[in-house]
Amino acid sequence: MQVIIRGSEDEVARAAADVFSSYVRAGAVLGVATGSTPVGTYRELIRRHRAGDLSFAGTQMFALDEYAGLSCDHPQSYAQTIRREFASHVDIADSDVHVPNGAAADLVQASREYEEDIDKAGGIDIQLLGVGTNGHIGFNEPGSSLNSRTRPMPLHPQTIADNARFFDSADEVPRRCITQGLGTIQRAGHLLLLATGEKKADAVARLVEGPVSASCPASVLQLHPTATVIVDDAAAAQLVHRDFYAVAADGDVPA
Ligand code: F6R
User: Fold this and answer.
1) Is residue 4 classed exposed, middle or buried when 0-12, 13-18 and 19+ CB atoms within 10 A define those classes?
2) Where would I find the beta strands (DSSP E) of the chain?
3) Is residue 7 within 8 Å of residue 233, measured between CB atoms?
4) What confidence score (pLDDT) does residue 152 get?
5) Is 134 among the residues known to form the active site?
6) For residues 21 and 54, is the Cβ–Cβ distance under 8 A?
7) Burial code of 131-153, b = ≥16 C-beta within 10 A, e = fewer?
8) Taking the complete model, does pTM exceed 0.90, yes or no?
9) 3-state DSSP assignment of residue 176
10) Coil, strand, or helix at residue 222?
11) 33 lines ligand 1 (CB under 6 A)
12) Can you give the residue ranges of the Glucosamine/galactosamine-6-phosphate isomerase domain (predicted)?
C-alpha cells in the first residue's frame, strides 16, 4: 500500500486526478464513488477535460453502490449524483455509465446482473474509493465478508446519520442499498482511496495500520497489490508511521 499525505484537500484532489488521468487516457474501465470526498477530484478531472488535456472517449464508469428503493431519477440516487457531479461534464456516453439498479423488484438478481456487467466490460481497472467514518468502503459495513460480491445490504445507523446531510432528514435516508462487495472491489486492478478531514482520521489509521478485519472493511486494501491511499494532514493525524510514508511516497506516485 502506498500512503500519500498532502497538505490540503485541493492537493489531495490534484494527486488523485494525476493517478486517475493515466487510466482515463488509456480508455480504462473506471470505478467511481459518490459522497463528498471525490468531488474535488471530479472537478479537477472536469477542468482538465475542458482544457482539452483529457478525453474520456473509450472509457466506461461503474459506480460502487446505490440506495435501494429510490427511483433512479431521485436527485440523491447515486445514478443521478454521479452524472451531476462528474459524468455529464465529460465526454462519456450516458450508456457507458453503470450504476446498480436499486429500484429493482429483485435486488439479488440486480446485484448478479451488475457483477455480470462488470465482467462483460473486462473488469474495473481503477476503483476510486472514499471511506466511511465506520471504516466502510462502498456500503460494505462492519462485519461484511472480505470476499463478498455485489449484494443488497442494510445501511449501518452511523452511515444513515452521516448521509442525512444529503436529505431533508435522517428519516428520508434509505435503509438499504446494493453495493459492490469487498471481493468485487478487490478484483479491480488498482484501488485509489481518498480521505480528508479529521473526522476520517480514526478510519484511516485503522485501515492503514490496523489488522485486516471485517470490523474495518477498508482494511482489505492491505491485501491488494496496488492500493494507493491519498489523505490530507487532518485525515493522516492518527497514523503512527506518517513521517515514513511521506519519505516513501516522495516521487513515487504510481502511474
Ligand atoms: C459512496 C460510497 C461510500 C463513501 C463513504 C464516504 O459511493 O461508497 O463508501 O465513499 O461513505 O463518504 P463521504 O465522501 O461523503 O465522506
Assistant:
1) buried
2) 2-6, 29-32, 60-63, 65-67, 97-98, 126-129, 151-154, 176-179, 190-195, 227-232
3) yes
4) 98
5) yes
6) yes
7) bbbbbbbbbbbeebebebbbbbb
8) yes
9) strand
10) helix
11) yes
12) 25-223
- Report whether 20 contacts 253 (CB < 8 A): no
- 71 pLDDT band, cuts 50/70/90, is confident
Closest CA relative to residue 64, chosen from 90, 94, 38: 38
- Any alpha helices (H) in 97-138, and if so which ranges? 107-120
Q: Is 81 touching ligand 1 by the criterion CB < 6 Å?
A: no
Residue 87 has pLDDT above 80, yes or no: yes
pLDDT at 255 over 50: no
- Ligand 1 centroid distance, CA of 22 (Å): 23
Q: For atom 11 of ligand 1, which residue has the closest CA? A: 132
Show Cβ contacts of residue 247 under 8 Å, excluding neighbours closer than 6 positions.
none
As a whole number of angstroms, the distance between CA 38 and CA 128 comes to 8
Q: Is 227 left (phi over 0), alpha (psi -120 to 50) or beta?
A: beta
3-state secondary structure 14-71: HHHHHHHHHHHHCCCEEEECCCCCCHHHHHHHHHHHHCCCCCCCCCEEEECEEECCCC
- Written as one letter, the residue type at 213 is S
pLDDT in tens, 174-198: 999 999 999 999 999 999 999 999 9
The CA-based dihedral angle spanning residues 179, 68, 115, 145, taken in that order and rounded to the nearest 10 degrees: 40
Kindly give the distance from the C-alpha atom of residue 36 to the centroid of ligand 1, in angstroms, as a whole number. Answer: 7
Ligand 1 atom with the smallest distance to the CA of 78 is 7
